[in-house]
């Protein structure tokens, strides 16, 4: 046996452990367990057809070889993606640090104050630079953020009587091409009519509910958005501005002009291009729209001692909680990238950002002058970093390509290009030489960059930004390193203990899967670079598509969606396109079981479908009779069923094949939510159960870390009849023959993160993947057994087994005055992050250990749960001054001179022996959610402001 095989590193329980665990659950072999768990008729008959597994060492050599196939040419294409400099201190201490990248979404605020603070810094930075009142903690990319802005303005139009019912939205023709494509995708299904035109020619007297401008435009020209917004405001037309984040250092904040929404990407703040992503988009708006905001907002509140504490704001938290009333489906966003961008702001501060922006602007202006001297006509009269040259594009392209430089050629008579943070005087001279050669002229050599100001006077920046202390303190590496560490210490991540979040699959994110993300030749490829330069990427992306197609039992895969929820939307849009191709335009009913994740109904509504909810049985299964009845009732208009498998209740429903058949018989397609794919890989698959399309959360099943709430990758895999409709992209040919318009900004979504899943599959191979699924099921059933007698498990399969996760009931403890939240908070004192709270059943915990957790860790967790159960038995409803209600206990409480609790300090902080060796201290006491929602503050406001609130 190869003791160094990756599977043995990825999977937690050793062979002996597995035997003991099987013994505990009363079985001899793993195969018996699988037999008792997964219905026979959906089991795969043969092994997955994948390459032999590589060792970690072999994989790193392999991925290094492939990286060499990428040609990192000097790239000035712009269009929302620019070369940038990731400060090494951020790369090493955040991107390469499991303390940051393995954390979960900060729902458990008391053990997430570090990333919450970093995200609050992000929001502050966005609020300052855009001049808006509130901002969220990131969205997926600039183009989807633009679509979210349009949706928000559409949703709020009804509040303005004059605009109620108006459905026209103006799009400046200077919008980025990928954003236009996204706007089309999202406008159509909900009945928005897009009108694309020139800003200068816009007729404000026409009936529009909103408009979107690009600032500066895609060609680099800065227009007078001040005047546009002011006229629009008079006409009560709401305006969204897509603004280049770095240019805002020099351009006046759109908020100062009265913009309603400002969106964009923060990629330029130190995040590698990564062939398209992941990067954090930002979204800022007015206070008045705070309840309509997509994504998550971090807000300030207080803890049980009245001290400042942070948490995700507003009871709604995310739009999708509103299910079919939601206007956005965003769940996973781009937390890790937002954290990195915020640290770029912290490190450079306002002075550093001005230095960087001025340098870029001055170089651009110097270059413009040199090109004019060479006789070129530069069209932009006001610009930040992008020039537009009228010339024979072909001539320039020929020389530039020969000299390994990428410019952008929008048509045969135009060349545009953008200068960036990495551009040196040498690069400027190199560019001049290219244009000189294309014009058959002697080149001009620049030795000095001139000071310049080529920005339209009315939009030059006057307002201050980043005045808070945090942006003016940590400017040396030592200071920033310690600041990052001080935040990291407040957060519990997978490098401390198991995070057994049901439905979220927090498994190992192996270092060898992560290493290549830092490499230059993976980071520095522009998503619109010629395909010939991206051969390394195309090789792995194609192979990953093939691997996922094989694993799901389908015909093809699109990697474009950059979260699970985007995958859902993409899948439904593909289904819609399929129906329409058969002249079934009327098919718009989407059946969704009541237990579905909130993103399901939210996505269906975004796709223009009508949600019909179907019932569950007492055993947690889909009520097949109810489903049949509803499918038949709606058979003329049935579009799809959305079903999670195994169900969100943690059960492999044996009726699944019957269910998918009912839908097909009534003319519908079956969408399978693949969040629970970790219970299927190698043993069964969506194709096999009769689904037509599924999304996968590569950040759950396929080892991409959660990053504290993103990035994610949510590819869709489809059956043969849906392949023609896989999503396209305006500048790069991807997708099916009758491709739907874009689902995310980049042709391959978050390509850089895809390396992780590729590595995961490459190193596990068919056997390792299948073994992982089996052990995930073993670990879950072992926990179920160990907790028996203390916690009841709701729902199990026909033979009494759980799938890869289980729901434990905490409602009976209400008799003792204990809520499920109290258990979640008490687990922190034991060094554990709570399992999923109250999804899909209120008052329960959903536990998913994954295959990566060892028996020892699982035993510690079970010991903690059982010990908490004893504590519950000892408390009463009448007396809330107890271990659970007061949890979590901070170091400050334990070491304070006063101790007024009716239990010992030891019982509070060190309830079990193992805690002594590895104590994790929550940094604040229990946070007060309601208080913060009544007094919403979502930037680093000075403490005084907070005290007055
Ligand atoms: C996580 C999850 C989703 C949403 O996926 P994101 O990547 O967060 O957008 C959808 N459905 C289920 C069942 C999930 O667990």
What's this model, at a glance?
The chain has 949 residues and is α/β, with parallel strands linked by helices. It has 30 helices and 26 strands. Mean pLDDT is 96; it is low at 945-949.
Question: What is the secondary structure topology, with strand pairs?
Answer:
Elements (H helix, E strand, L loop, with lengths): L5 H5 L4 H10 L5 H8 L18 H12 L6 E2 L12 H8 L2 H4 L11 H18 L3 E2 L6 H15 L11 E5 L4 H14 L2 E5 L12 E6 L9 H10 L3 E6 L17 E5 L15 E5 L12 E5 L5 E5 L22 H39 L3 E2 L7 E5 L2 H10 L2 E2 L1 E4 L2 E5 L6 H14 L38 H12 L22 H4 L5 H4 L11 H18 L3 E3 L5 H18 L7 E5 L5 H8 L3 E5 L9 H10 L4 E7 L11 H10 L3 E6 L11 H4 L3 E4 L19 E3 L32 H37 L5 E2 L11 E4 L10 H10 L6 E2 L6 E4 L7 H19 L17 H5 L9 H5 L3 H5 L11 H6 L8 H6 L1
Parallel strand pairs: 1-13, 3-4, 3-5, 5-6, 6-7, 17-18, 17-19, 19-20, 20-21
Antiparallel strand pairs: 2-8, 7-8, 9-10, 11-12, 12-15, 14-15, 16-22, 21-22, 23-24, 24-26, 25-26
The protein binds pyridoxal-5'-phosphate.
Please, could you describe this protein's structure?
This is Glycine dehydrogenase (decarboxylating). It comes from Algibacter pectinivorans. The N and C termini lie far apart (64 Å). The radius of gyration is 28 Å and the shape is globular. It has 949 residues and is an alpha/beta fold. The strands form 6 sheets. It has a 7-stranded mixed sheet, with helices on both faces. A 7-stranded mixed sheet has the order 16-22-21-20-19-17-18, sandwiched between helices. It has a 4-stranded antiparallel sheet with strand order 11-12-15-14, covered by helices on one side. The longest helix has 39 residues, at 335-373.
């Amino acid at each position: 046996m190869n003791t160094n095989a990756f599977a043995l590193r990825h999977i937690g329980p050793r062979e002996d452990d597995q035997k003991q665990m099987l013994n505990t659950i009363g079985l001899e072999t793993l195969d018996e367990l699988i037999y008792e768990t997964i219905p026979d008729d959906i089991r795969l008959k043969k092994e997955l057809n994948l390459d032999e597994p590589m060792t970690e060492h072999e994989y790193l050599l392999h991925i290094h070889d492939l990286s060499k196939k990428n040609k990192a040419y000097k790239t000035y294409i712009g269009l929302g993606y620019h070369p940038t400099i990731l400060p090494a201190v951020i790369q090493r201490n955040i991107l390469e640090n499991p303390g940051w990248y393995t954390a979960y979404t900060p729902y458990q605020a008391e053990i997430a104050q570090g990333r919450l603070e970093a995200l609050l810094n992000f929001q502050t930075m966005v609020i300052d630079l855009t001049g808006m009142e509130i901002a969220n903690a990131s969205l997926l990319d600039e183009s989807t953020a633009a679509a979210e802005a349009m949706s928000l303005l559409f949703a709020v139009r009804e509040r303005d009587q004059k605009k109620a019912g108006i459905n026209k939205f103006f799009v400046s023709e200077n919008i980025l091409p990928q954003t236009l494509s996204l706007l089309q995708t999202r406008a159509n299904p909900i009945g928005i009519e897009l009108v694309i035109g020139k800003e200068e020619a816009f007729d404000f007297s026409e009936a529009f509910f909103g408009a979107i401008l690009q600032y500066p435009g895609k060609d680099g020209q800065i227009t007078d958005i001040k005047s546009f917004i002011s006229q629009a405001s008079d006409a009560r037309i709401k305006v969204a501005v897509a603004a280049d984040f770095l240019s805002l250092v020099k351009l006046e904040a759109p908020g100062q002009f009265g913009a309603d929404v400002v969106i964009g990407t923060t990629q330029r703040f130190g995040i590698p291009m990564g062939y398209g992503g992941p990067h954090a988009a930002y979204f800022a708006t007015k206070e008045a729209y705070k309840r309509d905001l997509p994504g998550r907002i971090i807000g300030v509140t207080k803890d049980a001692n009245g001290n400042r504490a942070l948490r995700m704001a507003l009871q709604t938290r995310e739009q999708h909680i509103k299910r079919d009333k939601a206007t956005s489906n965003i769940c996973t966003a781009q937390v890790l990238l937002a954290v990195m961008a915020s640290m770029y702001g912290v490190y450079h501060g306002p002075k550093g950002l001005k230095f960087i922006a001025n340098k870029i602007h001055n170089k651009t202006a110097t270059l413009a002058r040199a090109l004019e001297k060479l006789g070129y006509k530069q069209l932009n009269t006001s610009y930040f970093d992008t020039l537009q040259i009228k010339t024979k594009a072909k001539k320039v392209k020929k020389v530039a390509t020969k000299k390994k430089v990428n410019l952008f050629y929008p048509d045969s008579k135009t060349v545009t290009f953008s200068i960036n943070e990495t551009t040196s005087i040498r690069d400027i001279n190199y560019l001049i030489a290219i244009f000189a050669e294309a014009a058959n002229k002697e080149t001009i050599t620049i030795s000095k960059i001139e000071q310049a100001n080529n920005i339209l006077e009315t939009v030059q920046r006057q307002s201050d930004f980043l005045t808070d202390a945090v942006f003016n303190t940590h400017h040396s590496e030592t200071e920033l390193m310690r600041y990052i560490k001080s935040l990291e210490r407040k957060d519990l991540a997978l490098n401390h203990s198991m995070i057994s979040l049901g439905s979220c699959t927090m498994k190992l994110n192996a270092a060898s899967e992560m290493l290549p993300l830092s490499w230059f030749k993976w980071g520095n490829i522009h998503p619109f670079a010629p395909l010939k330069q991206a051969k390394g990427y195309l090789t792995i992306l194609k192979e990953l598509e093939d691997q996922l197609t094989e694993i799901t039992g389908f015909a093809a895969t699109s990697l474009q969606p950059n979260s699970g929820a985007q995958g859902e939307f993409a899948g439904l849009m593909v289904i819609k396109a399929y129906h329409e191709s058969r002249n079934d335009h009327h098919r718009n009913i989407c059946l969704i079981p009541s237990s579905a994740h909130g993103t399901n109904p939210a996505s269906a509504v975004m796709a223009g479908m009508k949600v019909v909810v179907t019932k569950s049985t007492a055993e947690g299964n889909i009520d097949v009779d109810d489903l049949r009845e509803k499918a038949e009732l709606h058979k003329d208009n049935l579009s799809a069923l959305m079903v999670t498998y195994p169900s969100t209740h943690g059960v492999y429903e044996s009726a699944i094949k019957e269910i998918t058949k009912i839908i097909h018989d009534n003319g519908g397609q079956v969408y399978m939510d693949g969040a629970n794919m970790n219970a299927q890989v190698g043993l069964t698959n969506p194709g096999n159960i009769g689904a037509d399309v599924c999304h996968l959360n590569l950040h759950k099943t396929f080892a991409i870390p959660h990053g504290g709430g993103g990035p994610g990758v949510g590819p869709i895999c489809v059956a043969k009849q849906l392949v023609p409709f896989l999503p396209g992209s305006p500048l790069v040919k991807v997708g099916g023959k009758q491709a739907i318009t874009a689902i995310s900004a980049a042709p391959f979504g978050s390509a850089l993160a895809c390396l992780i899943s590729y590595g995961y599959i490459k190193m596990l191979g068919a056997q390792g993947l299948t073994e992982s699924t089996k052990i995930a099921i073993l670990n879950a059933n072992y926990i179920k057994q160990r907790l028996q007698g203390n916690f009841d498990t709701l729902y199990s399969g026909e033979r009494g087994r759980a799938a890869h996760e289980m729901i434990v009931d905490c409602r009976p403890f209400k008799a003792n005055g204990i809520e499920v939240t109290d258990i979640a908070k008490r687990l922190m004192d034991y060094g554990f992050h709570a399992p999923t709270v109250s999804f899909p059943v209120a008052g329960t915990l959903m536990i998913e250990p994954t295959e990566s957790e060892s028996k020892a860790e699982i035993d510690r967790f079970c010991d903690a749960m059982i010990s908490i159960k004893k504590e519950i038995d000892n408390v009463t409803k009448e007396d809330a001054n107890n271990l659970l209600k007061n949890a979590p206990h901070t170091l400050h409480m334990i070491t304070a001179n006063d101790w007024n609790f009716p239990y010992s300090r030891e019982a509070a902080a060190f309830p079990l022996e193992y805690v002594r060796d590895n104590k994790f201290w929550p940094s604040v006491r229990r946070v007060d959610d309601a208080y913060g929602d009544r007094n919403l503050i979502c930037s680093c406001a000075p403490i005084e402001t907070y005290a007055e609130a």
